[in-house]
Amino acid sequence: MDSDNKIRRAGFKAFRLPLLEMVLIIIIFIIVSAMITRIFISASAYSKRAADLRKADILLQNAAEIVRKDGLSEVIFTYGLLRSGQGEYGNAFETGLDEDFNATKEAERVEYYLDVVPTEKHAELGDDFYLSKNGKYGVMIDVYDKDRNLISSVSEVYVK
Predict the structure, then answer these.
(1) 47, 55 in Cβ contact below 8 A?
(2) Is the CB of residue 80 less than 8 Å from the CB of residue 103?
């Protein structure tokens, strides 16, 4: 009888060791899986941010070229900008953009904002200087997300 107990205890100890190893392996697997999942989620967020930045930069380049070539009045017309307030040197303009950075008037689709603000005022241009094509003035163009976090900016575009 004593020998049977010794055999049972030896068998139980032999059974406990692989079970403990499997539990430890499962715990390690869960921890590593959680870390890898977090890395993929972060990478996805960074990828979206990079795509947004790329689209915003293309939009800013296009708007800046329109301002340089044809003046502020043309960029106002092209993007359907509306007066959003008074800047330091004149009227500020803004429009909502959807998730693809296309101008939209539907408030529920607005994900980003395009702001255009004059940065210099020249006396000879008068109050409506932003309508002038021949005067020289500066314009700042910004793209914000819907929480008003700056995504990208063209600090100053000079119209000659």
Answers:
(1) no
(2) yes
CA dist 92 to 33, 76, 95, 125, 139, Å?
50, 10, 11, 16, 10
pLDDT category of residue 137 using cuts at 50, 70 and 90: low
- HSE-up of residue 99 (Cα within 13 Å, Cβ side): 3
Task: Please check whether residue 157 is in contact with residue 75, taking contact to mean a CB–CB distance below 8 angstroms.
Answer: no
Q: Are 129 and 90 in contact (CB under 8 A)?
A: yes
3-state secondary structure of 132: coil
Q: What are 116-136's pLDDT values in tens digits? A: 887 765 433 444 444 444 555
What is the C-alpha to C-alpha distance for residues 131 and 97, in angstroms, rounded to an integer?
Answer: 23
